[in-house]
Design goal:
GO terms for molecular function: transmembrane transporter activity. By secondary structure, the protein is mainly α. It is about 50% helix and about 5% strand.
Length: about 725
């Protein structure tokens, strides 16, 4: 019990409270964080961010619900919190009067048992669809229904503290654990479900950067196919030789801002057409290869184990949130090009993901899991009907003619609507071949520039911070314990290697762990790595079918922007959700998060607006203007390369957020519990608990050849 709780038996209002008696010692993982458990009727947040329940509630939580036919999380007794009264409040009440001749003393419990009042023991409960627990027999015999929250399984997650708790937690939260191998049919179904739920994260990034480089519809289709191929290969490598967690690798939004900054560099403004696309892609490839090689060295050398001491939830949360917030100038301004299509797309995603999220079909929440593909299909079908019925057809105007070649002022007025609202302006599907094998260096030999490579090296550190948060959060859901620091270093090193592959194949971005993995695992309750591996194999097969890439490349740009509004909002929220592992109400953390988020928006705005007059007519669209800062930023020296690096890095929101958060979190005093310091497993735990070794050890006994490399293993 914490020092702020009154001692049982003390008078109400007594201050300071009486010292507490010796409490049950915490588990080994909690000792390292200075966690002090409470045994009152209130739940407390532990360092891992999970809820530590009182003894009586935990015993009832972990009992299987035989009436439901499976192990299920059983809520604590209603009387424990009835009318807002907790056990703490009950202890503060004066003791009842002694029994008289007209009263009978209740029977004493046997020694060593947990004393529970009779009125707290309902005999039988029946849960209806509204979350009401009907009590058929109780201490008072009234049988009045007691209202219970119907989402107890969603909101209460207990971190396993022993092997027995691990087995119970898997049954409670996940359909399949990390090492479970369901049948071929479940693996195929859940694998398709897993990748469809993350469709937006896999394909939206190339749909943004390729048009920005001046690529044609055929180029978009080829890049999309390449992204699918590289995602499948890198995911297989990561689940086998990386963290071994069921995490999909793909083009992260972390790489999108630096890619757009490189694309809009002043030296590329004179290029046009296909030459522009191939030249910029080769520049991106060179920068990604150098930055990813730096990330690989960071992981495999063991330096990541040292950096992990500086990376905590208070650092991860604002850094990842700043990534999503940085694209506000791109989202709705592009949606506004065709409001009747874009707004409907956004509303459908919101309705499916929020208002219909509890609707289940065959025990699957289809609207929550498939919110992005369902809304995309409906909106695309509606736009197709509008196009076919002539809603966007204007007499004498051809949507395939470039705007610069349109002479008629009347047609020029409607060109924007025809370009962004019609669904037949893209010829990617018709021009795509049926079979195409993505191969390395398909765009040419990479071009290496030290200034762009340095920018990507810094971005690779941000991507590593993003992945660290995903490793920790996903391990609490699917594994017996969090990975060791060596496993995290090994995974970061492999991410660097797979990003080198992405640079060689020419995806336009690096390959890293997608932050949306944690949300997908929590929603689908599927933690088996076999499911992700089978889905990765299917992804590789689809990448060889050119028509698949052509179909995805033909998604109208307004719909892409609408989905990105939702995805970037999700990315921001997932970043901030890391605060659940710390004391989010602490004034220390509130100030640090507030400063990091505010200055991550304000400082880049200063760099982006510096030297631009209100009446200046820029050649790039308004949603690309934040990424041309290298040509007019305030940092000016005699070295043009240094000017480029400093102006580009300091104009990125995630870089400013990371710098401020990592400095303040590691210099401002605060307890480990308050900071929510990540608790990683150690080698002693791996030796003592075989389940931990089985979760993270390398397959085919490869690890025995590298046992001397302690900093990249268990």
């Amino acid at each position: 019990m914490s020092s702020s709780d009154p001692k049982p038996g003390s008078k109400p209002g007594q201050w300071p409270p009486a010292p507490e008696s010796a409490a049950m010692p915490p588990s080994s993982w909690a000792k390292k964080t200075g966690f002090r458990p409470k045994f009152s009727g209130e739940t407390t947040a532990t360092d891992s961010g999970q809820l530590s329940l009182p003894v009586r509630a935990r015993q009832q939580e972990t009992q299987p619900d035989l009436e439901a036919g499976q192990a299920r999380l059983r809520p604590p007794p209603a009387s424990a919190v009835a009318n807002g009264e907790t056990d703490k409040d009950k202890r503060e009440k004066p003791p009842p009067p002694p029994p008289t001749a007209t009263t009978t003393a209740p029977p004493q419990p046997p020694p060593g048992s947990v004393s529970v009042p009779v009125k707290d023991q309902p005999v039988k409960r029946r849960r209806d669809s509204d979350g009401v627990v009907a009590r058929s027999n109780g201490a008072n015999g009234s049988g009045d229904p007691v209202r219970r929250p119907g989402r107890i399984e969603e909101t209460v997650e207990v971190l396993p503290q022993s092997m027995d708790d691990d087995l119970v937690a898997r049954n409670l939260h996940m359909k399949y654990g990390l090492r479970d191998t369901p049948g071929l049919v479940p693996i195929g179904f859940y694998g398709l479900q897993h990748y469809l739920s993350m469709l937006g994260s896999l394909i939206l990034v190339p749909l943004v950067i390729v048009p920005a480089m001046g690529g044609s519809h055929e180029d978009i289709a080829n890049v999309v196919s390449t992204v699918l191929f590289v995602c499948g290969i890198t995911t297989l490598l990561h689940t086998s030789f990386g963290s071994r967690l069921p995490l999909i690798q793909g083009p992260s939004f972390v790489f999108l801002a630096p890619a757009l900054a490189i694309i809009n560099s002043p030296e590329f403004q004179g290029l046009n057409g296909n030459n522009n696309f191939k030249h910029i892609m080769r520049e991106l490839q060179g920068a990604i290869i150098i930055g990813s090689a730096f990330q690989a060295v960071l992981g495999y050398s063991g330096l990541m184990s040292l950096i992990l001491r500086l990376v905590n939830p208070v650092v991860v949360a604002p850094t990842i949130a700043a990534v999503g917030l940085s694209f506000y100038s791109y989202g709705f301004p592009l949606v506004g090009k065709c409001l009747e299509i874009g707004v409907v797309q956004i509303l459908l995603v919101i309705i499916f993901a929020l208002y219909l999220r509890k609707i289940s079909v065959l025990s699957h929440r289809i609207f929550l899991i498939y919110a992005v593909p369902l809304s995309l299909a409906i909106t695309w079908a509606a736009a197709f009907l509008l196009t076919e019925t002539g809603a966007y057809t204007y007499k004498g105007c051809d949507p395939d003619v470039p705007v610069s070649n349109v002479v008629s002022s009347r047609c020029r007025k409607y060109m924007t609507r025809m370009k962004y609202c019609r669904v037949d302006t893209s010829h990617a599907l018709s021009s795509a071949p049926w079979f195409r094998f993505p191969y390395p260096l398909q765009w040419g030999v990479p071009i290496f520039s030290w200034k762009m490579a340095f920018v990507m090296c810094v971005v690779s550190i941000i991507a590593s911070v993003d992945s660290v948060g995903s490793y920790h959060a996903s391990s609490l859901l699917v594994a017996s314990r969090p990975p060791t620091r060596g496993v995290v270093s090994r995974a970061i090193g492999l991410e660097g290697f797979t990003s080198v592959l992405a640079g060689l194949w020419g995806t336009g971005t690096g390959s890293t762990t997608l932050t949306e993995n944690v949300h997908t695992i929590a929603v689908t309750k599927m933690g088996s790595r076999r499911v992700v591996e089978l889905g990765a194999c299917v992804l590789v097969i689809f990448s060889l079918v050119g028509k698949v890439g052509g179909f995805l490349a033909s998604i109208p740009q307004v719909m892409v922007a609408s989905l990105l509004c939702f995805m970037w909002a999700m990315f921001t929220a997932l970043g901030l959700s890391n605060l659940r592992y710390s004391e989010a109400g602490s004034s220390r953390n509130i100030i640090i998060i507030g400063l990091a988020l505010f200055f991550s928006l304000s400082v880049p705005a200063y760099f982006q607006q510096y030297g631009i007059s209100p009446n200046s007519n820029l050649s790039v669209p308004s949603y690309y203007q934040p990424y041309i800062v290298s040509s007019h930023g305030p940092f000016k020296s005699q070295y043009k390369g240094l000017n480029y690096v400093m102006n580009t890095l300091l104009s990125m929101n995630m870089v400013i957020a990371f710098i401020i958060a990592v400095i303040l979190d590691n210099t401002v005093p605060g307890s480990k519990q308050e900071r929510g310091v990540y608790v990683w497993s150690d080698s002693e735990t791996a030796t003592r608990e075989p389940a931990l070794a089985k979760d993270y050890e390398l397959p085919f006994r490869v690890g025995r050849f590298f046992r001397w490399v302690k900093w990249v293993g268990i």
